[in-house]
Amino acid sequence: MMKFRFRRQGADPQREKLKQELFAFNKTVEHGFPNQPSALAFDPELRIMAIGTRSGAVKIYGAPGVEFTGLHRDMATVTQMHFLPGQSWSLLTHQGRLLTLLDDSSLHLWEIVHQNGCAHLEEALSFQLPSRLGFDGASGPPTLAHITVVLLVAASNMAALGTEGGSVFFLDVSTLMLIEGQTLGPDEVLRSLPDDYRCGKALGPVESLQGHLRDPTKILIGYSRGLLVIWNQAAQCADCIFLGNQLESLCWERSGSTLVSSHSDGSYAIWSVDTDSSPVMQPTVATVPYGPFPCKAISKILWRSCESGGHFIIFSGGMPRASYGDRHCVSVLRAETLVTLDFTSRIIDFFTVHSTRPEDEFDEPQALAVLLEEELVVLDLQVPGWPVVPAPYLAPLHSSAITCSAHVANVPAKLWARIVSAGEQQSPQPASSALSWPITGGRSLAQEPSQRGLLLTGHEDGTVRFWDASGVALQPLYKLSTAGLFQTDCEHADSLAQATEDDWPPFRKVGCFDPYSDDPRLGVQKVALCKYTAQMVVAGTAGQVLVLELNDVPSEQAVSVASMDLLQDREGFTWKGHERLSPRTGPLPWPAGFQPRVLVQCLPPAAVTAVTLHTEWSLVAFGTSHGFGLFDYQRKSPVLARCTLHPNDSLAMEGPLSRVKSLKKSLRQSFRRIRKSRVSGKKRAANANSKLQEANAQLAEQACPHDVEMTPVQRRIEPRSADDSLSGVVRCLYFADTFLRDAAHHGPTMWAGTNSGSVFAYALEVPAAVAGSEKRPEKVVEAVLGKEVQLMHRAPVVAIAVLDGRGRPLPEPYEASQDLAQAPDMQGGHAVLIASEEQFKVFTLPKVSAKTKFKLTAHEGCRVRKVALATFASVACEDYAETCLACLTNLGDVHVFSVPGLRPQVHYSCIRKEDISGIASCVFTRHGQGFYLISPSEFERFSLSARNITEPLCSLDLSWPRGAARASYSLQESPKLSQANGTPGIVLAPQSCDGSPNPVHSQGADTPEPLEAALSPMSIDSATSADTTLDTIGDITVEDVKDFLGTSEESERNLRNLVEDEARACAILIK
User: Fold this and answer.
1) Where are the annotated WD repeats, by residue (predicted)?
2) For 741, which DSSP code?
3) pTM of the prediction?
């Protein structure tokens, strides 16, 4: 007999409209430090900084909240970045244009443009330089194989390109076209050299190009083999020639009378530029600062002058090769003071913030910014000692590897101020330091956040970091360290390192990136914070559970230590993992901030997998792979311990740090797979009546009305075996004041869910607090098992939540009692929502009978990874909001369901299914937003709410040169192409072939783009991922196809024709 289940006909248009007002998916902003940075640039006039990455991302930063993000179409490394300078100082032009060079020798011009009052970053032009220009003969023109250096000429709209072959080409920046007739080849330079230098050897690649500070018609060219030439473009000859060692970098002194060069042997030389002397000149000073032993190359050097005397010489590298060749150092030398800044990651680039106004005689550097592979460090050069300036953004989230994260919404102002105060006491700034963050370009247009949000990250070194996640800039507030409570070997190692440290070179440790953990057992696994009582719990890898309380002043006190045996003397289990951490005894000094009160040690010392805190009852619950426990931290006594191990759960005794492999488990799984394959084969053989089934299906389709939507076919889910390994892992814990014993009396309860689909509900006897007192009486808390539920398919229980009579989740501790939230409905019947990896199910209380369910795995073929109850406010009506269940699956999709009906509302593709770490790190907020790691150092922020969106809205004051034409004529809108790591936006990409821009017919430059395109919720994954898919389907014409299929000769001919057309009418391409 066949059964048919029908849904109602069609969709409710009113409900669909309401969904659009409640839900919208957007990837809004990326928090943290860019992954794998490769290039750096700074605009001294606009005070903005650009960072390029190895994945082709371009990120521009200004004042806090001012961020622009772009992404090259090709996943190539950004090797160089240059902001276009103003063409005339009298006009005070600030272009806001950026030229980038990729490792494939392609050039890209970016513009910051304003649309609808907000600025955003667009790619205006791109130019792939051909590998050969001209003929292959020996007498042909120079070839352009690979670009090594780019120089933007301030006096003209032109760029000089140095190559590996030693040639210098010139490019028109406004069109990104090569300027014919001005190429400077190495042969022409060699003809200007003395005869004794021309010995048949090549000059080598162009290592550095610098504009002449006195005469804009001259450029300084540095070749890798040591030749320095001041070339006069007007006279086509060399004015000055300097002969040195193998070259690394060059820098002018501000007056233009002196230049400094750095070399591969760890030396630098100072040259005096005097046009009246002979063409060939020797250095006035040549020194090896860290000699006399062989040293590594000085890769970059800067010279900055000061009015008070004593210029700055700042260089990277140059360390003694044998003893300190593995150090990453930047040396700062002023007069007799030398400081060697020692960093923990590779140096990418650095710059100084100094005066660039022509009327100023001296540089007067204010700050030094050093971009490292893992962090950005800024030092104040105006204060003795050169202290580090705290960064309001770009903080290295991964200073120690992130192991867990949590979000706290609507933080009270009092608690916020106390956390900020504790953080300021951790890193006090010198009183003489008046320098604030020097990168202050632009202004943020975003409104002040209506509520404060905290993002807590637990780390491998036992620290918990507090971040201000209220706005676009993720700012560090406070760092909590738990390592001081335990005895480790880190102090001994530090003392040995300091004892062997020499006075020379004068090293100074700078930066906070420290990827090495002294003891992996210190790693933080779970963290929970009560925002009303300023109490929190931190649980770690070795079974340590810390209860802490915020204190505004430093104190010295002992920490109470208790242990709980979760095995309950069960026989046959032997712990093979790591040992427990040994706590320090006696009174210990604690700085202002969160100070530990109680330490609970789980036995065996396995990693804590779940934790929850109820400050109103002074209870903390925690779970491991062996069971769960309940602890009364007010009386400092255990309440409950329950072992959840299965007799065959031997893998749980090995621990995460053990290398023991269970051969018994592997054999058991192999035989089980063989057995299942045989059973499934028999089932397939038994289904010989497949033709009859097909006929029945055709009859059913004919009998069913076509305008009625049928329920989708559900997949058959096989129940999991009870003896699977790690079945006793506790996945979630939950406190609730609800009905468990009977429908007339409610009281405190504790719920626990395990990996085998078991749910334990305990009724708690908690002494009621006396009126007017926050603490409850000193009486024993008792726990009695009230209910035990076993899910049919034994799927792991991911989350548990109790719903009141109105179907709303219960408020947090102290929210209802202090009138901070609406009191729950205790009159109607409560229900409990149990989310497993395969389905969501609502049970009535206290009978625990099934009310409704949704089988996610059966319908969608995916498994639940993260769930959270969130409130979605309407954009049309400020007073309307719905509480829904947000779910992230193992495929990276986000689903939203109504509560308590569990009806699917919307679903979006959020994270790549291959990004396992990103899915595992996802955390939802209470207001429909979320965070997940797109790299070890970056959080991607996304929003499911149509109203609650945190995104960068900013503007930049730009003034274009008079008569300068914007390069936006070659822009073509890329359909829903996202920015660097998934941030929604329109990246306008050019269509070019071998350097010939392809203008397209589109809207004018000032025509605003459609609102639907700007706010489209399409998802493009992170630029850090290797398989970013770009949708190139659009207005593809026959001419576009011909451009792609054209030969190199046709491309070169088109290039020449375009250059000639540009010479005849330069404005014809502007539409």
Assistant:
1) 454-468
2) S
3) 0.82
